[in-house]
Amino acid sequence: MTQLAVDNLLAGLTDKYNLPKPIPEWKEFIEKKKRCGGVEGNITSVSTSSCASASESKSSCTEIETVVKSQVERLEQQENALKHYLPLDPTLKILMHEEYHKLDPDSTKWMNFLAASSATEIWHKHSTFVQHLRGVWKILQMWKQPEEICRLGLFHSAYSNSFVAMSIFEGDPDILPNETKTNSNTKPPRLQLQETIGITSEALVYGFCVIDREDFERIILTEKKIPESGMLMKHIRSKQLVRKWLDEGKIRVVSNPDLDLPPAFKFSNEYLKLLEEQSSHVYTWELKYDEMEEELDSDDRLPSLYLNLPKKTCGQYLLHTIADYLDQFFNWQELMELGHPEALWPSNGLPMCRLFIMMRMAQISVTYGDLQVVPEIFRIAVDCDTNNKLPAENELRARDLYWKAITLDVERVKRYHGGVSRDDVDGGNGEVVKNTLGQADGVDPELNSATDTSENRSKDREEIFSLLVQASKYNPYVGEPYILKAQLLCQDGQWEECKDAAKEGLKWLQLWGTNWDKRVAYEGWICWARCVYLGFALVVVDFEIF
C-alpha cells in the first residue's frame, strides 16, 4: 500500500469516526505492519472495493480500520471516565472559560467599568482589589446566588467601608443618584454605579459600605441569630451627614412640647421620598438619638442616622460576608489580627483558621436570613455547626497537620538534594549550585547523599501521607489535603484510592467556590485535581499516550 493510499485511508477514517486529526503513530504502525504494493489513487472510505481488488490490500484496510477503531474506543473510554468521575460544575466551566456573559448579560459593561477604575492598581491582601472583587463575584456565582447579590459581591467596597478605604470613585458617595443638583460636572458615584449594576444592586452596595461591619458581625455571632425585626445599624458617617442635611434643609427640627426631651428631627417629605426610591426596599432610614446624646445640653443634641435592615437584607449581607472572607483569608492577615504588624507580606501562605466561624455564619444565615437560594455548602454547614463537627481546635489541628506535611515534603527534597541543577552561565555544564540557605534544620550537609535511599524516601512518603490523612480526619471540609493525598496514591499506583481522593478534593473545591490553600489560584487547584485523576483514568482504560 502506497503512502498516498495510507494517507487517504486515514483521512477517510478520520471523517468516519469524527477524529480531530490522524495520529502519526497510526501511520507508523501501518508502515511497519502492513506493507503491500499496487494501490494507487485516492482512497476516501474504508470499503474493501475502494482499497484494491487484491485480497492482501483488502486485509490491510480491514486491519487498519480495526486498529483505528480500537484507538477510538480507548479515546472514548478515557473521555467518558473523566466526564463520569470528575465533571466540572457548569458554572465553574463558564467561569474558567471567562464566558461571563452566560452568567450576567451585562458583564461586558461592568468588566469595562472595573478595568477603567483604580481597582486595578490597588493592593488587596493576596492580589489586587479588582481581582478580589471578581473573586467574590465568582464565589457567589458558584453558590448560584441571584443577580443582585452577585453584583453586590462585585462592588461590595466600591465606596470604601468600615474596614478599608479603597473607594474606586472620586466624589461624594452620599449624594443620591436621583438628586438633580450636584457640585460637579461629573455624575456622582452612586449614579455611575447604579447605571452599571441597577438600582437594587447599588442600594445593597451602598448599605454594605456604610454600616459598621464589625458591629454587624459581632451582634449576629453573639446572639447566634438574626433578630426577627431585623437590625438597626448606624451610618458610619452619621453625625457628618446629619449636620450636612440639616444645613441643606433635608432634615428639619420639629419642636417638642415636652421641654425635658430633646427636640425631634425628621426628614423633609421630599428628601424622604428620594431616600426611599433609592433604597429599593433593601433598607429604610431612621433618625434616632443615642442614649448618651439624650444627656447632652439641648444645643448639642443631634440624632444619629441609622439604616434599618430587614431580616432578608441581613441574611444577604451575612452570606456575602462569608464569600468576602473566604476569597481573601490566609495567614498573613491572621498574623495582623494576632498583633504582629511587623510580619512581612505575604508570609508563607499558610491557610487561615477561620472556617469554623464561616460555618457558624452560614448556619445563622440559613436558619434566620430568609435566603432566596441556599448554597449546598451552607446546608452542610448547618449540620456541621449544629452538631459541632468542626470545633476551632480541630480546624487548627488540621491546618497544622496539613502544613507539617507540606514542610516535610520540602525538607525531604532539601535533605536528598542539597542543591539544584542548572546550566552554567558560561558553558552550560549543568553544574550543581549548593543550596546553602535551604538546608533542612538539624541535617548535616555531608549526609545528604547518604540518606538518599529508597527506604528513607518511602518512610518520608508514608509520614506525609499519614499527616494528610489526619488533616482530613480533623477537618474533612476542605479539598486540598485530599488532592495531595491523591497525588501520592497515583505515584504509588493505588488507582482506585487515587480516584476517590481526587473526586473528594474536587467536590469540596467546587462546593466552596474557592480554595483553602491560597498559595496558588483556585483554578490551579481545580486543574491539578483533574490532572492527578488523569493518571488513574489512563491506567484503568489501558490508554496509550501518543
Descriptive notes:
The chain has 546 residues and is mainly alpha-helical. The protein has 4 domains: 3-72, no CATH class; 107-315, no CATH class; 316-386, no CATH class; 392-540, Alpha Horseshoe (Serine Threonine Protein Phosphatase 5, Tetratricopeptide repeat). It contains 22 helices and 9 strands. The strands form 4 sheets. It has a 3-stranded antiparallel beta sheet with strand order 3-7-6. Strand 1 and strand 2 (127-128) form a beta hairpin. It starts with a helix and ends in a 6-residue tail after the last helix.
Attribute tags:
546 residues, mainly alpha, 4 domains, 3-stranded antiparallel β-sheet, two-stranded antiparallel sheet, 22 helices, 9 strands, elongated, disordered C terminus
User: What is the topology, as strand order, of the major beta sheet?
Assistant: 3-7-6
* Oligomerization category of the chains in this entry: single chain
Strand pairing plus helix content: what structural class? mainly alpha
Strand content: 5-15%
